[in-house]
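anyone seen this seq b4? input:
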Amino acid sequence: MNKKAIFLLSMLMIAACSGNKTKEEESVTDKADYVSEKNMVDTMVLRRVNFNKQIISNGKLKAVTKSDLKFLNSGTISEILVKNGESIKTGTAIARLDQKDAKYKLEQAKLSMSKAELEFYDQLIGYGYSKDTSSVPSDLLKTIKIRSGYTSAKGDLRQAEEALRNTTLYAPFSGKVANLTAKPHEAFSDIVCTLIDDTRFEVEFGLLESEVPFVKVGSSIKICTYSDPEKFYSGTVTQINPLVNEKGQIKVLAMVNNNSGKLIEGMNTKVIVENLIKGKLVVPKSAVVMRDDFDVLFRLDKKTNKAMWTYVTIEMSNTESHAVTANIDKNADLNEGDIIITSGNLNLADGSNVEIKRKKN
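predicted toks r here
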């Protein structure tokens, strides 16, 4: 074999050995990476605290103050001064009827009043009195006013003045305009618009018979709309109707302030009724997972840093937490002071090695 062939064979053997070494190194590296993977978790110390029990229901908003507004007299609308959705103050002019007829009647009433006054003073003089009526006996003064037409004319004048005022529709309270359908130049005798005080609302919702014992007048509630579920409004229960309806529910009313101005009459809401229950073992919802169709949380063994599978019973829940007890049917053990794993627990098994990211007290 010549030198050239020997050289080529040597190079091929070296390359093959290098390739095998690389594969072995990669295998060792991958294994090392796998072994080094750890279950990073968050924990908390289990304490007995007051649990904010929440009952969730669906409700509907109703304005506390709401009025359908219409003119006292029929007529032709001359102008509309507001728009749907506009917020107005007490006494704001909303719409106005044609005033020609009312103004004419007022002028006629003023003229009749002037004539009656002349007749009244003429009769006073006839009885020997001056225009100063302070010395005239009350019975005689009353008789003269009636005979002269003074009393009747004064009543007609007040009525004409009132009729002119009634040609303008005013807001009886501050609120927001809704259902405005009237238009200028229409002969109108129906409801012009609805005025809603939207500074606060009643929310009406139903509770089951079993839920009512946890609620009383004065209990706190929170509501949110389905269009903005992150925004909550606080309120207070004001009425509990002592009657079960055909659906097995009891009607409850609560008052809610519309601080943002975004709540609207008739809006559907989610209602959360709150009531503090003392001395419960409370964990975040993230601490409880399902294993074999049972609720489970993981306690941390301080000595071994291993997760301990613990069956629990959820007594009650709110939007953030569970109140739990040990599942006695599974001979589980759960005590105040235990360290509970609150995150990183989805793939844990009994005895899994864990490392704490941070501990919540």
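The helical segments are 3-36, 100-126, 138-147, 150-165. The first strand starts at residue 39 and ends at 45. kinda curious what u guys think
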